[in-house]
Structure formats: C-alpha cells, structure tokens
Amino acid sequence: MFWSVLQIGLMIYLGVMALIYFKQDSLVFLPEIDRDFRASPTDIGLPFTPLQLATADGESLDGWFVPADAKRSARGLVVFFHGNAGNIGHRLDYLRMFHELGLATLIIDYRGYGLSSGNPSEQGTYLDAEAAWRHATQALGFPADRIVVFGESLGGGVAAKLATANRPAALVLASTFTSVPDMGADLYPLLPVRLLAHIRYDTLTRLSQIACPLLVIHSRSDDIIPYAHGRRLFDSARPPKQFLEIEGGHNDGFVFGKDAWVKQLDGFLGQALPDLRQPAATAQ
Predict the structure, then answer these.
(1) What is the mean pLDDT of residues 249-274?
(2) Does domain 2-276 have CATH number 3.20.20.370?
(3) What are phi and psi of 264, to 5 degrees?
C-alpha cells in the first residue's frame, strides 16, 4: 500500500514537472484573457494614431501613439510595455495619467496579443520592444534622452532588457518580478523550478547593467508578485533610483494609488527630464 501511494505521488510530481517544463509559454503568457475586449484612447477623450509596427523577424504589432496635450510641448515620450494578460485596450488609465503629466505615449501589444500577429515568447517580446524603440526614435523622432521606458508586471522584464541596449532617459518598473524562475520558486517551493525554467526575464541581473534613473513601484498587498521582488529590484539597482510603495493588489494598485503615482512620477520625471519640467495636471 505504501509503495503504491508513493508511486502515485511520484507520478503526479513528475507530471507537474513535465507540465511546467513543456507548457511554460501557456503558463507565463495569457493573451487569450479578454482577447476580444476592444477599447481605444478616444473612449477617454484622447486623440491617437493607430500603428502597425514590423519586427525584425517579420511579425506585425498593433499599437497606438497618443500625443501629448497639443496646448503645450511634449515633456517626453513613454514607451509602455504591459503585463502578461489582456491587451492595450485594458491600459487606458495609464494613457490618461501620462497625458496629464504632459507626456506622449507609444504602447504596443506583443506578438500574439490583441491584434498583433504571431505567438508570444520571451525572445519575441524583446524583438517587439526593439521595434517599438525604433519607431519612437526614427519615425516619431524622439531622442533617447527624452524617452521613458515603462514596464508593468511582465512588461518590466521587457523594459529592463530594452534599457540595457538603449539608454533611455529613465526606466519605470511597476509590480515587476526579479525573474520568472524566482516567481516559480515562490509559487512552487517543492519543485525544482529554477532548473525547469527556460523563460527567464532576469530583470534583477539586468538592473546592474542599467545606468539611467530608475523608479520601482510595488504594493505590499500585491497578490501575484510579492512585494519582496520590488524591494530586491530597488536594492540591487545603482542610483539614481526611487521607490514608490502603493496600496492595493497586483491588478488594482493603480486605481487605489493613482494620486501617489502621479505625484511621485511627476517628481521623478522632473529629475529625469529636467529641461522640460511642467506641473502635472490634477489627477481625476
């Protein structure tokens, strides 16, 4: 009886290991969640230009360019990378905030997300980020020292990689993990996740290669990515750097902490983009 139970337990254990190894893409990337959701900046009163960006390996990315307020010069450009679920239509609150801060925004859906072609992968998202950077600097004409790279959750791993190769004016990491293996070890402490993980997004290691100003944003109540990940990212980074502790869970921290976001992000940008500093509009 004991050996039978042990065999069954071992088979289950090995089965879970196989699932983690062979199905990592479907565990990490969740493009099907609310895939049919459609919204646009015009829904919140913002003008925008729809984009189709070509990647180096031939994929077509859906995206938007939202200009800054026409009544004043653009303070700079945010290149925004979202998390592992949903699409750009779910990020309208971010676009509103950036607009209030006098920033233009370039936002894309990764390959396989929203209306973009292809299938998501770690290396693919890096190519997607490079396509966004090329459009920002070449087609839109923003110099690197006027561009803020912003990553939300998994997008922080994408943003950090981009910032190692192209020095932007600043990097913002919101609710981001140190790495996928670290996240897996937190979720499955009894499994050798670090050995099984072929998706890495090693944000922690990359921060040592980044020299631009850094803002890390995280909540102690984050129910998906532990607060400790945000603190480790901040502690490992070189100055200049700032940390903003917000309230709320992983997916609603922005809602609960918008006033704090706007205030600290405005001050952070005032240091990263000092030549064009403008007062932020009052948060709604």
Answers:
(1) 77
(2) no
(3) -75, -35
In sequence order, the 6+-apart residues with CB closer than 8 A to the CB of 14 are: none
Pairing of strands 60-66, 49-54: antiparallel
Q: Identify the H or E element spanning 282.
A: none
Q: Among the listed ranges 58-62, 79-83, 127-131, 265-269, which one has the minimum average pLDDT value?
A: 265-269
**274 in helix, strand or coil?**
helix
Count other Cβ atoms within 10 Å, centred on residue 38. Answer: 11
pLDDT of residue 282: 34
For 63-97, the pLDDT digits (tens) are 999 999 876 777 899 999 999 999 999 999 999 99
Residue 260: per-residue pLDDT: 77
Give dist(CA 101, CA 78) in Å, integer. Answer: 11
CA dist., res. 158 & res. 87, Å (int) = 15
Q: Where are the domains of the chain?
A: 2-276
- Closest by CA position to 96, among listed 273, 272, 283: 283
Instruction: Return left, alpha or beta for 21; rule: phi > 0 is left, psi -120 to 50 is alpha, else beta.
Output: alpha
Q: H or E segment at 13?
A: helix 2-22
Residue 133's H or E segment, with its range, is helix 122-134
pLDDT above 80: residue 14: no
Q: What is the pTM for the complete model shown?
A: 0.90
Q: What is the DSSP letter of 135?
A: I
Q: What is the pLDDT of residues 98-119, one digit of tens each?
A: 999 999 999 999 999 999 999 9
In the numeric block, the tokens 């293996």 are attached to 181
